[in-house]
């Protein structure tokens, strides 16, 4: 068994071909339990790319990113920030749903390990290289550390314009903005959600403000 997705990633910048190839990826063991690969979707040459952690239960069942509760919250935040989701490219760091069943029935999200994140990164690298976004928004610690390094602390860099490390060379140098993952906001106590939602909206507005257009 290979320990990375690299051997499954075709030499192409065509997103449809990448998505098709990702369907049969066995770069880590997460494919064994997930319903299907959930690849990114959106505008092929989007100026802004949003990157989350991994698909959730609804995403795994429907095969599309950010269509569950976190996706609904993200849609509200994008609307509040006056950012059109149809003009974005939205994806996740890990393309298969990792979960546990503590009750024996309901599937509960489980954070992917560093090994699983690294194994799946070739797909994310391929998406960035293909889309060539001007701005990449990393939502949550898993996404931020996947691209910025394992020691990166999201809370220390919110509200800053950052750039990707020079290695590997992805052939593009987008501005990078970090923010909270929508699912993290949903897990906050009710009295804190409005404040955290407003912070997400502010981060999305900041990211949109970095676009040349």
UniProtKB/TrEMBL annotation:
InterPro entries: UDG_Type-4/5, Ura-DNA_glyco_family4, Uracil-DNA_glycosylase-like, Uracil-DNA_glycosylase-like_sf
Keyword Aminoacyl-tRNA synthetase appears in the UniProt entry: no
Gene3D superfamilies on file: Uracil-DNA glycosylase-like domain (3.40.470.10)
SUPFAM superfamilies: Uracil-DNA glycosylase-like (SSF52141)
Pfam families tied to this protein: UDG
Domain of life of the source: Bacteria
Keywords assigned: 4Fe-4S, DNA damage, DNA repair, Hydrolase, Iron, Iron-sulfur, Metal-binding
Residues of the Uracil-DNA glycosylase-like domain: 39-205
Family: Belongs to the uracil-DNA glycosylase (UDG) superfamily. Type 4 (UDGa) family.
Name the record gives this protein: Type-4 uracil-DNA glycosylase
Native organism: Mycolicibacterium pallens
